[in-house]
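re: that chain from earlier
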Amino acid sequence: MTNKNRSSAGAVGRASAAYGLGLIGALIYFIQSATSFWDGLYGVFQAVFWPAYLVYGLLHWLRM
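^ sequence. v structure.
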């Protein structure tokens, strides 16, 4: 394995860890705020796809 491959593999690992922590935090937040089973289920959906919600909100705020 070359040095170039090692450095890019480390960057992917750090990004995966950051996404995983964000996923866990989002799951805790959305499930705690759920008042019914369906709200909880929707919260799990939101927790998995929170980056898409974030980008959509940013683009809407920038009016793009």
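Residues 3-61 form one domain.
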